[in-house]
Every structure is written in structure tokens, then in C-alpha cells.
Design a protein that fits this description.
- The protein is α/β, with parallel strands linked by helices and 262 residues long.
- It has a single domain, classed as P-loop containing nucleotide triphosphate hydrolases (Rossmann fold, 3-Layer(aba) Sandwich).
- The chain is 34% helix and 28% strand.
- It has 8 helices and 12 strands.
- The protein is globular, with a radius of gyration of 18 Å.
- The structure holds adenosine-5'-diphosphate (ADP) and magnesium ion.
- Magnesium ion binds next to helix 1.
- Keywords: ATP-binding, Nucleotide-binding.
- GO terms for molecular function: ATP binding; ATP hydrolysis activity.
- InterPro entries: AAA+_ATPase, ABC_transporter-like_ATP-bd, ABC_transporter-like_CS, FeS-cluster_ATPase_SufC, P-loop_NTPase.
């Protein structure tokens, strides 16, 4: 229990280019818990992920985010990563000239801090082990980061980073998009292998199918830049079966997007 994280999002509002996207979002994630956020497109899910990680384009205008009582919003992005936040991105960037293994080792060492770097042998052993688990060919260690990777290979690579960095709060933004069923299963196994009391998950997904492989403890529906409904795994099954319209009807929501209009 000693290292079990407590991540609290309270009344979070955020804007991009002067437009408010997140409109007061509350969520608490504790170690050992898997939370899924589902919602139609354009409801602010990726904005939430970017805002939590500290993307400079997203301006927080109200609310707080804390990890074990520490103010996350005050932290620079690298400090957030060192504190144990991790984001597997919906659209990972390609970085030419930086090999995947150099990137991974730098990221691990940045997290471990000066004087406590991982030995090269130990790093390679760990990386190769995790790559095998993710069914990634050895060549991916030496290729430039995400360059020419297929959609599924990029997603596996995000999970590889997560497995090596061992974050405390893992945010996965549509990790299932673009994955065929075998890749989906492998990615889900990677996530499941990391489930522990020392770690909490926020899994953002548009479709229920990922949740056939990763059982969430809590499911939240996002509309209009906030969480409008929460439940257990059965809520995801209901969405799979009946879509989102019944939730909109129940809550009297006409347009579920953040309603930026034009
Ligand atoms: N960087 C950005 N610049 C301009 N608009 C943005 C940006 N990021 C998000 N938005 C807008 O915020 C709204 C919510 O987008 P997003 O968070 O990506 O939703 P979701 O991930 O739920 O599909 C959309 O209308 C989108 O166009
Ligand atoms: Mg998105």
C-alpha cells in the first residue's frame, strides 16, 4: 500500500486557443484501479489526456489535479513524467534520427536521475524481454522512433515505453484504434501485466472491444467536456449494445460534443 498512488482531478476546466473544452471534470484514480473513459468523438477525451500531461497548448482555467497531494498542474511535463505520469498517445510522433532504443534508455535514465543510470546490459535485457512479450521484432530497437511504423506498431511501441518506465498513473488514449484483433490482445496483455496496487490506469476508448480484454473497475462516459455518467464494466457493455443515444436522452443532451459551433 505504501506506494499506492492517489490521483485526483477536481473541477478541471481547460481551454485551447481561447475555447473552453473541458468544462469541470472530476475523477479520482487510486492504485490498483482501471478506469475507462468512453465517449463519442469531439467530447474532449484527448484534450483531457493532453491537459493532464501538460501539453502547452491546453490552458487550465479552473480546478486542480494532484498526485499524492502534490500539485500536478504546477509541474513541468518532465517533472510530471518523473512523478509517475505516463501518456500513451493517440497519435505518437515520429522522430527521425533518434533510435527507439536510445530514446527508451534516455527516458528511463531521465526518470532514474543522474548517478543512478541503468547499465547498458541491464537495459538491453529488459528491453528485449518486453519486446518479446509484445511480439515486436528485434529490428524495432534500432529503427528511428516511430518512423515508418504502422499504426499497430506505434501502439505497441507506446506500450513498450510504458512497460519499461513503470509509471504510477498510466493514461492510454485510444490505444486500440488501428489495431487488429491479435495486436489488440497483445497490447491488452501488456496492460494487464502492469496492473498492480502501485499503479492506476485511465483508459480512453471509443469502442468497447478493448474492454473485452482489459476489465475496467469503473467506466465513465464523457460528453460536453465532462463526465456525465459513471458505472462498472456493465456500462461499457450497454454502450456497445445500445450506443450513446440513450444516455443523451436520459440526460437531455442534444449535442454531445464540446459544442464549439462555428
Ligand atoms: N489543439 C487543438 N486546437 C484546436 N482545437 C482543438 C485542439 N485540441 C482539441 N480541440 C478541439 O476540442 C474538441 C475536443 O477534441 P478532442 O479532445 O480531441 O476530443 P475526443 O478525443 O473526445 O475526440 C474538438 O472540437 C477539437 O477540435
Ligand atoms: Mg481523441
Amino acid at each position: 500500500m505504501a506506494n499506492s498512488p492517489k490521483f485526483i482531478i477536481d473541477g478541471l476546466k481547460a481551454s485551447v486557443e481561447g475555447k473552453e473544452i473541458l468544462k469541470g471534470l472530476n475523477l479520482t484514480i487510486q492504485g490498483g484501479e482501471i478506469h475507462a473513459i468512453m465517449g463519442p468523438n469531439g467530447t474532449g477525451k484527448s484534450t483531457l489526456a493532453s491537459t493532464l500531461m501538460g501539453h502547452p497548448k491546453y490552458e487550465v482555467t479552473a480546478g486542480s489535479v494532484t498526485l499524492d497531494g502534490e500539485d500536478v498542474l504546477e509541474m513541468a511535463v518532465d517533472v510530471r513524467a518523473r512523478a509517475g505520469l505516463f501518456l500513451a498517445m493517440q497519435y505518437p510522433s515520429e522522430i527521425s534520427g533518434v533510435t527507439n532504443s536510445d530514446f527508451l534508455r534516455s527516458a528511463i535514465n531521465a526518470k532514474r536521475g543522474e548517478g543512478n543510470e541503468i547499465s547498458l546490459i541491464k537495459f538491453i535485457r529488459q528491453m528485449e524481454k518486453k519486446m518479446k512479450e509484445l511480439d515486436m521484432a528485434a529490428e524495432f530497437a534500432h529503427r528511428y522512433l516511430n518512423e515508418g511504423f504502422s499504426g499497430g506498431e506505434k501502439k505497441r511501441n507506446e506500450i513498450l515505453q510504458m512497460m519499461l518506465l513503470e509509471p504510477r498513473i498510466c493514461i492510454l488514449d485510444e490505444i486500440d484504434s488501428g489495431l487488429d484483433i491479435d495486436a489488440l490482445r497483445i497490447v491488452a496483455e501488456g496492460v494487464n501485466s502492469l496492473k498492480s496496487e502501485d499503479r492506476g490506469f485511465l483508459i480512453i476508448t471509443h469502442y468497447q472491444r478493448l474492454l473485452d480484454y482489459i476489465t475496467p473497475d469503473f467506466v465513465h462516459i464523457m460528453m460536453q467536456g465532462r463526465i456525465v455518467k459513471s458505472g462498472g464494466a456493465e456500462l461499457a457493455e450497454q454502450v456497445e449494445k445500445d450506443g450513446y443515444d440513450w444516455i443523451k436522452d436520459e440526460l437531455g443532451i442534444v449535442d454531445e460534443t464540446v459544442g464549439l459551433g462555428v
